[in-house]
Amino acid sequence: MEVPEMRDDIVALFPGQGSLTGAAGLAWRESEHWPLVGEVSEAAEIDVEHLLLVASDEEVVRTDRAQIATFALSMIGFRELRDRGVLPRFLLGHSLGEFSALVASGLLSLSEGARLIGIRGRAMARAAERSPGTMIAVMGAEEGARENLSGLADVWVANINGTGQIVLSGTRDGLEYVLTNHKELGWKRATPLPVGGAFHSPLMASAQAELDAGLASVSWGKTENILIANVDGKPHTEAAEWLKLLSKQMTSPVDFLAATLALPASVTTTIELPPAGVLTGLTKRIREFQTQLAPNNLQEMSQIQL
Fold this sequence. Notes:
This protein is an alpha/beta fold.
């Protein structure tokens, strides 16, 4: 099939594991690209088809399951988009979504991406068992609220999702203090998140070491895409740059705010790959786009005309 010309006015958004729900794959099972689920399963050593078609919300929420299932679904969506003649120049993933973006760009093969995500998910689950923790979202920042988080014991900024929405990682005791005192700290709301660990924090150091070992054997490709990184909110296109970025990703905050703002004004359209919706909502609150699409089934994908 002829590869379509890249569109400089479009960014593809690749979601993180928090976007997945049980049986999310049913809406994509009839895709001609569904067989890649088998390739992903073999490379990651887990039954991804079961996770996408049968598993309940409770089953797929575990990080070592949610990550690989989300990745597979995003790859099916990206290939469907490409089949319709739409190939975005800009790629932006959220946490796990960076691996999806790297595979979509050609810097990683599908099997290498799946293998690394399998390593990453299992390593994060083990790290969470060794160093138990969780995450909460704080919203509605007053003046000085961000500064008030600095120096709190066993609490770290994990995701910067907008000017007034931050996700914190930490020990249960550390985050319980924030939940109890969030108004005094300058935040209007604080909400616990249903996650299995303190991701994107120093408590993930052992998982980062395991991922680094897996990254050492990767065969990298080249790309004409422009990928925006979570770690520094800047565009990167070279494999050597991404190797360094991924070696920091699991213990550093996801600065999705900076990454979104790094997109040039010429990018007027966002297309979020499945499981879609969360990142479209985040980007909408960060800056204005003319068109924002979040197809969550084959019919919605087939209606895209750009």
